[in-house]
């Protein structure tokens, strides 16, 4: 379970202040919204005072001067219409501010995700990240829309109502204020315990998203191996935990928020009516004052009750914000480049010098790796699963930071080259290529505005991808669904080849790039690869040894070390690990093996 430290009162205050910083760019809009809110509150307080005037000055003495009463009625109706109009603009303004704040926050967190190192994605389920970017930020939006507006409204109402109450009866107003510490006590108790409940809920929701994402991305395997029942059971367990956490929170809310506040309101009304009752024993009490006082007390409790009811939203938002900020503060960023001198990749010569690397910082997966790939040469990496082939490529692509040894391109440390320079000069083709939602042309172009349609087609022709693209109903405009699921593995690979060659890289990195291509297509691809490799340094991972026999250097890896190196024929003559692999792949049984 993804577990976060408990949020203390200090932590919650820090999260709230950080959230409020997002509102600073909208200070003028907030000022206007607050002005509208102030007008709305003022109108809601003036209304009962107008009715009090009508009751005491006209209704009680049964005197109804036509002009004065008509004026009073028109003023009251006009006031209500004014409140409705101003409330509309006030709510609209606050909603606009909230949406803009969340829009910026989502941009910030998504930008942060794009810059995180691969280690973070290795350790964090994708569904959990999606939950933070979507569900948690949506919860924060509700805080800006509901809680902040309600809280500000409550402050204005409290000030306005107490001013009106003091103008009616000073002693009674002071007496009614004795209940305020009870509100503060309830808020303190609620804030102390509810954060734990909401943190549990958000974490379980994150697990739900992670399980859904895993099931959807691996649906083929789920159905092929009949894992539907197991995954449904696991999902039910997580969902049941989320339900129990939600019920614990609802029970807690039900005790502290609604009934308790209603009870305090009832006691206050009884107290006020009792006070006026005793006063009436000595002297007459104006009915209008009783009406105004009880109505204003109701107006006082209404925003307080709304604040209490929205404390749950507030606590959810703080927990959600803490999760979002934890992601935004994640220190495991992609490796930094020290690119002060703006150095360029000219020839593509690659040097690994005593490189040692561990994904977890403890268990080395590469041990003292050293080799040189001269410009234009092809270096092949072979070895059993887990031998470290992909780790070499991961370091060359700067997906992970290495601490021991050095990697040079054209004599310049990999760490001193700009990221844009590396990405432009190194072309990567993976065994399982990723296609983006869009069409064929956009997947080859990758939204490079400087690339023409003719260049896209030339790249496709170069790798023989045009042969299947031209047969599609819409050709280069053919729609590509998520991950290119409507195309075969070989077709996706051909598009990936075209995408790579279109950028004209100096260094070519192939991770078993022909593994998913049929034999007939592979022959054409091998011809294309020979053209692609001319003038380019190529690092190729190969499981089928027949595809790398012409490599200038073959490195045989075993448990993170280079145990053999040489050309294809040299390695066969050594009769070592490479020789054994070659014999097995070609179905040759040798008693000497």
TrEMBL record:
The chain crosses the membrane at residues 28-51, 71-91, 144-166, 172-190, 254-278. It is a multi-pass membrane protein. Residues 32-316 form the ABC transmembrane type-1 domain. It holds the Pfam family ABC_membrane. The keyword Transmembrane applies. This is ABC transporter ATP-binding protein. Its main location: membrane. Keywords: ATP-binding, Membrane, Nucleotide-binding, Transmembrane, Transmembrane helix. It comes from Sporosarcina oncorhynchi. It is found in: Cell membrane.
